[in-house]
Amino acid sequence: MQGSARRRPFPAAAPGSSPPAGPLYPGRHGSVKAEDTFKPSPFHLDLWFYFTLQNWVLDFGRPIAMIILPLEWFPLNKPSAGDYFHMAYNVITPFLLLKLIERSPKTLPRSMVYVSIITFVMGASIHLVGDSVNHRLIFSGYQHHLSVRENPIIRNLKPETLIDSFELLYYYDEYLGHSMWYIPFFLILFIYFTGCFTPAAGQSRMPAAALLLVGPSSLYYWYLVTEGQIFILFIFTFFAMLALVLHQRRKGLALDSNGLFLFYSFIITLLLIALWVGWLWNDKILRKKYPGVIYIPEPWAFYTLHMSSLHPARGSA
User: Fold this and answer.
1) Nearest to 300 by CA among 272, 290, 268
2) Comparing C-alpha atoms, which of 107, 123, 103 is closest to residue 115?
3) Suppose 58 and one of 89, 163, 228, 288 were both cysteines; which one would form an S-S bond, judging by CB atoms 3.0 to 4.6 Å apart?
4) Residue 201's pLDDT band (boundaries 50, 70, 90)?
5) Which tens digits make up the pLDDT trace of 81-101?
6) In whole angstroms, what is the distance from residue 41 CA to residue 111 CA?
7) Rg (the chain; Cα; Å)
8) How far apart are CA 110 and CA 159, in angstroms?
C-alpha cells in the first residue's frame, strides 16, 4: 500500500530516448519559456535610464572630455580621458544589452545574441584605438571635414607610405570599427523589439517616465547615426520595425511600453536627422566631403569646420 501510494510525477523515459522538451529543460535549443505567451512586460525604467545615461556620458561625452580637460593631465602619447570613457562603454553597454534581452517576455535566439555581443565588443574595441588617434590629431591641426590626404598635416608626410598608414587607421576607425560596432548593436535592439508585443490594449501605452526619456534617447541616436555615418543601417532597422508592427497589428497585437519607447525614439531620431540635413543642405564644403545621394554630415566635421576657432591646434603644447 505504501509503495502504491507513491506517485510518479512524470513517466519514465524509454531507454535511449531523448528527454521531453519544455520548461523542465530550459537549456535545450528551441525550448519555450512559460512567459512566451505575449505577457506584457513592465517598462524597464532602470535599464533604459542607465542605457541613456551611459550613452550620453561615455559615448557622446568622451570627445568632449578629451577637449575640455587640461592637456597636461593626459599627454598626447598616453590614453586620454575619452579613451577611458570608451573602455567603460565597451564593458557597460554589452552588459546592459544582455540584461535587456534577459527581460524580454519572449524567448530570443541565444546564439545570435551571443555572436552579436562578441562582434559588438570587438568592433567597439577596434574603434577605440582608431578614434583615439584621430581625435588626438585635432590638437595638431587635423581637420575632420577634409579627407585624410587633403589634410595639411598629412599630405606633406614623408615617405608617402605614411599617408597610407593613416588611411588604414581611418578605415579601421570609420568603416570596419563602425560596421562591427553598429550592425550587432541595432540587430540586438531589433531582436529585443520582436518580443515587445502584447494582446492587451491597455498595456500599449508609455508611462510618464518613458516620455521623459524618449527625448534624450532620440537625441543620442541622432548623434550615433550622423557621427557614425550609419543612416542606411538605421533606416533599414526602422523599416524592419515598422513592417513588424504592421504585421503584428493584423494579428491583434500591439507594442508594449518598452516597444513604444524604442519605436518612438527611432521616429524622433529620423525627424532630427531631417532637420540636421536641411540646416546644412547648402554647405558647399561639407557637400564636398559627403558627396552622393545620401548627404548626412558628421557633427565633428561641422565642429572642426565652423567652430575650430574655439579649439586652436595645440601641437606645440
Assistant:
1) 290
2) 123
3) 89
4) low
5) 889 999 999 999 999 999 999
6) 23
7) 25
8) 49
> Terminus-to-terminus CA distance in the chain, angstroms?
93
Helix residue ranges per DSSP H, 36-80:
45-54, 61-68
Amino acid at 296: I
* Residue whose grid cell is 565652423: 306
Mapping DSSP to helix (H, G, I), strand (E, B) and coil, where does residue 254 land? strand
Alpha-carbon gap, residue 115 to 119, rounded angstroms:
6
* Residue 248, all three cell numbers: 503584428
Mean pLDDT of the chain: 83
Task: Select from 190, 163, 142, 158 the least CA-distant residue to 311.
Answer: 142
Question: What is the pLDDT averaged over residues 156-171?
Answer: 86
Structural domain spans, the chain = 45-290
The span from the CA of 48 to the CA of 57, in Å, is 14
| Torsional sign, CA 65, 66, 67, 73 | positive
Q: How does pLDDT run across 48-91, given as a tens digit for each residue?
A: 999 999 999 999 888 888 778 877 788 888 888 889 999 999 99
User: Is residue 20 reached through a cis peptide bond, with omega within 30 degrees of 0 on the bond before it?
Assistant: no
Q: Where are the alpha helices (DSSP H) in 205-308?
A: 208-228, 231-250, 257-279, 284-289, 299-306
Count of positions (residues) in the chain: 317
Sign of the four-CA dihedral 148, 150, 151, 154:
positive
Output the pLDDT for position 308. Answer: 60
